[in-house]
Amino acid sequence: MSVSKMQLDIVTPERKVYSDEVDMVITRAAEGDIGILPKHAPLVSPLKITAVRIKKDGDESVIAVSGGFLEVRPDKVTILAESAELPEEIDVERAKAAKERAESRLKSEDGDQKRAELALARAMNRLDIANRK
Ligand code: ATP
């Protein structure tokens, strides 16, 4: 591995979504936004419903993740996500429908509000990332 890069793996229970050597990873951990460069101090943290921004050779790509865990080691970043999608994999109509379902559940004020809030956050995160394409 080159000196200035680190290995990034993003996996879900179903599949490996991303695996490559990268220059920088920017995402939102439980304690706040974090930018990770090679040789970062070891760290384990829960991950928010958020974007993972990846910088590699002057290009930036983005992946939608729906919570999970972030593990940082000096030469390797591993993200274990509940679900993760590349922008081109995101079904915008499905995310819009999920957003509307969650909003009407929140308005009706019955049922599981926390669950509806999380579904809304996943849908809005997917729509935001699909729009960055
Ligand atoms: P929905 O209500 O539409 O199922 P959800 O937020 O409940 O959305 P998840 O439980 O987060 O869905 O994900 C279930 C599976 O479906 C995962 O594999 C995830 O990657 C995929 N998925 C969910 N929504 C989308 C979408 N809009 N486009 C592409 N894949 C999606």
Automatic annotation (TrEMBL):
Keywords: ATP synthesis, Cell membrane, CF(1), Coiled coil, Hydrogen ion transport, Ion transport, Membrane, Transport. Residues 92-133 form a coiled coil. Pfam families: ATP-synt_DE (PF00401), ATP-synt_DE_N (PF02823). Residues 6-84 form the ATP synthase F1 complex delta/epsilon subunit N-terminal domain. Its main location: membrane. It comes from the Bacteria. One of its GO terms (molecular function) is ATP binding. It is a peripheral membrane protein. It is found in: Cell membrane. Produces ATP from ADP in the presence of a proton gradient across the membrane. Belongs to the ATPase epsilon chain family. F-type ATPases have 2 components, CF(1) - the catalytic core - and CF(0) - the membrane proton channel. CF(1) has five subunits: alpha(3), beta(3), gamma(1), delta(1), epsilon(1). CF(0) has three main subunits: a, b and c. This is ATP synthase epsilon chain. It comes from Hazenella coriacea. The lineage of its organism: Bacteria, Bacillati, Bacillota, Bacilli, Bacillales.
